[in-house]
Amino acid sequence: MGKTALAAVALLSLTALSGSAVAGQGRAAGHFDRPQDGFAPATTVLQDGTPSGIGLDPKPIDDAWAQIAAWTEKTPDTEHPMYAGAVGMLVHDGVVVSRTAAGKELRYADGSGTELPPQEQEPMRPDTIFDVASISKLFTSIAALQLVDDGTISLSDRVAEHVPEFAVNGKQDITVQQLLTHTSGLQAEVQLWKLPPEQRIPSVLALTPEHPPGTHYEYSDPNMITLGVLIERVTGHPLDQVVQEWITKPLGMTDTGYNPPASKLHRIAATEFQADPPRGMVRGQVHDENAWSLGGVSGQAGVFSTADDLAKLGQTLLNGGAYNGTRILSQRTVEKMLTDFNGEFPGNAHGLGFELDQRWYMAGLSAPRTAGHTGYTGTSLVIDPASRSVAVLLTNRVHPSREWGSNNRARQTLAQGMARALAVFPREGRESFYAPGAATLTSAPLGPVNGPLRVSFDAFVDTQRDPDGTDALTVESSSDGVTWRPVPLTATGPGAPDGPQQELAGSGHRAWWQVGGEVPAAPGEKVRLRWRYGLDEQYEGRGVNVDDLKATDGHRTLLDSERDSTELHLDGWTATSR
């Protein structure tokens, strides 16, 4: 592929975008409960603003950032600071509503955590440049999909058609799509830095699959190393040049690329003190040992970037592949990036290049089309098309040592802050009852009743329900306030479960359900009802709202929360207008 063709891929003019099908701009601004289809207008360009200015509640964002900042120091439940420093950025409907930095770019002198003298430590700043580690895989994936867009390759191509030596040891049928979705059967990791330079790439291309292609999901660095090689073979250009000319330069991502120049070293967050290989405190060079051994440029790692640049990439994908007059991907291809190709492997939803619906770092923004990726150095990018939001968290959690632990709680906290800043407006009246965590809402004794009670209410449920666990809303009844029995419930509405349910859980639908059930009761009894939201120890959704709680006994109304809620006891629930 020559330079003219490269330019044609990277620099389509905005006139080619005018026929794009996009949803109405601004209709869902500030809303969690109005999920959007399609893409944002291709003309959407990031601008600075405030949470309240775009209809968000600033408090969940402020609370999230306060917690993320606190983790730059040791806390009662952590042995070490979670990371030396962090930069966070939140975008909604094209508006940057939060851009914040805390902690240090450089803090430690060695791998044991000896702190540098205060005057030698360097503060984190909003434009700090981070080694984004495996977020690099997104750039490799986008470059490959640009080749698909222009017809140079196809998803069904066998990799060996373009890289003949890859065909050995049972890999002859592995496709480009299987590399992008991590279903090639290749192993998770390799240790190239332990091999002579001339053997490193050949050793990857000579690997033997651990599973037949297409039969198993395994997140694999060799997949992306191989895809990077394929891109170089097909284009005739080094991967870093392709990424620069096709992605970062057209999008104006001026601080994104491989092997950053020494002139930017003062802005780069330090990573790990490495003894094996003996590299000392790594700063300005890629942390990943394999990418380092390949000269800093590889399909699985090597990219450095900033929160602003990654937010720009996120907005490009929300726009359907275009930004500021330049289209880098077709809408059709972006849609495939947001479509799960791994339905046979529950819990491992994956589009082309992007992970999908991963609650362990997307928290309340999780949904079937929510896309993202993390990086080993402590980075994450979450793109939520349904609310047209982007969450970027960049930390140097491996500074000074990878052994100091995970920053997954911080990833969840930022995404959850965005989810809870978005509004869920009441179905009836001015307020609904909201439970962000474990909570119980209990009625006063109702009756004496003439017989079975009919209970009805509206529920907005956004909770975990996946192979890792379930956070559920249940309704229970009691005649003595001691023994509680579940009330079978039937829900209707977008995404509601079929048939009677003992509990309600799930996410992705982002819509109110109408819920009803019958409570067995003997004539003369008094009955209490309670709405209980319970959490397991795994991941959380945005939470649960309930509204318009009613209980009737024939023609008698015994409970109506819209008329009188004073007889309801709230433990963990709050009345909220949004």
UniProtKB/TrEMBL annotation:
<dbReference type="Pfam" id="PF00144">
    <property type="entry name" value="Beta-lactamase"/>
</dbReference>
<dbReference type="InterPro" id="IPR001466">
    <property type="entry name" value="Beta-lactam-related"/>
</dbReference>
<feature type="signal peptide">
    <location>
        <begin position="1"/>
        <end position="23"/>
    </location>
</feature>
<dbReference type="InterPro" id="IPR050789">
    <property type="entry name" value="Diverse_Enzym_Activities"/>
</dbReference>
<feature type="domain" description="Beta-lactamase-related">
    <location>
        <begin position="84"/>
        <end position="412"/>
    </location>
</feature>
<keyword id="KW-0378">Hydrolase</keyword>
<keyword id="KW-0732">Signal</keyword>
<dbReference type="InterPro" id="IPR012338">
    <property type="entry name" value="Beta-lactam/transpept-like"/>
</dbReference>
<dbReference type="GO" id="GO:0016787">
    <property type="term" value="F:hydrolase activity"/>
</dbReference>
<protein>
    <submittedName>
        <fullName>CubicO group peptidase, beta-lactamase class C family</fullName>
    </submittedName>
</protein>
